[in-house]
Specification:
Blueprint (H helix, E strand, L loop, with lengths): L35 E5 L3 E6 L16 H4 L4 E2 L8 E7 L2 H12 L3 E7 L13 H7 L13 H4 L13 H10 L16 H7 L5 E5 L6 E3 L11 E8 L4
Parallel strand pairs: 4-8
Antiparallel strand pairs: 1-2, 2-4, 3-4, 5-8, 6-7
């Protein structure tokens, strides 16, 4: 529409014209939990990000993201969608650039809390989920890296996979579409019964009557979180 009216193919756009368009989107639901503010001053806001909400628009997520929910603030650090914990938002461009540079230069110490299966002997400070799996200690309810049906009983420890690369890609691609996520906790103690009670996001076989996009069922609460929480941040200048 141009200036509140449906535009024609012949219409010539002039300076001052207001152009509008409608965008039809299908967006996955996220948790309804409040976003708690842990600290704020004139420069930054520190929040406790709930599990299940992505930090920024990605894939099918847009409005259901932290940066859209808290539109006036600028994200300084990123957390995985399923990860909860502290997240820093800047209130001005100067602080945003300063914080991003500190993050990029690895001048911020990050501490996480996670629940895993096993006794890890070592680890690294980034890509926690992948490295924990490599050690054989995946986060217990990680739907990707603690999935015995995909990685086998050794959980992909030291790169030991029961499937080849093509089979791995095929199996992971089906998750959330034709198969629900499965993790270590599903394989023990009445696993099947619990799994059936929490069946989550799947393609329903139906399509939207407006755009013909495939429709998904809603994820369960368990599908919106993993046992990984960003606990502390400390910069090299003790700020």
């Amino acid at each position: 529409m141009v200036n509140g009216h449906v535009a024609t193919f012949e219409q010539i756009i002039k300076d001052g014209d207001v152009i509008e368009h409608l965008s039809h989107r299908h967006e996955p639901p996220v948790t309804h939990k409040n976003i708690d503010i842990i600290y704020q001053d004139d420069d930054i806001v520190v929040i406790n990000k709930p599990s299940g909400i992505p930090v920024h628009p990605a894939g099918r997520y847009r409005h259901n993201s932290i940066t859209h929910i808290m539109m006036a603030e600028m994200a300084c650090n990123r957390l995985d969608r399923l990860t909860s914990g502290l997240m820093i938002l800047a209130r001005n461009v100067r602080i945003a650039d300063e914080m991003r540079k500190k993050m990029y230069d690895r001048r911020i110490l990050k501490e996480y809390i996670c629940k895993v299966h096993g006794q890890p002997l070592t680890g690294r400070t980034h890509q926690l989920r992948v490295h924990l799996q490599w050690l054989g200690n995946p986060i217990l309810n990680d739907p990707i890296y603690a999935n015995m049906k995909i990685w086998g009983s050794d959980m992909g420890k030291k790169g030991s996979f029961m499937l080849n690369d093509d089979e791995l890609i095929s199996s992971l691609t089906k998750m959330g579409k034709t198969e629900t996520a499965s993790w270590y906790m599903d394989e023990i103690e009445e696993a099947e019964k619990r799994r059936e009670s929490r069946l989550g996001e799947l393609l329903t076989g139906e399509v939207c009557n407006i755009c013909q996009a495939p429709l998904y069922s809603d994820p369960s609460q368990n599908d919106l979180k993993i046992y990984l929480h960003a606990w502390k941040y400390k910069s090299d200048d003790n700020s």
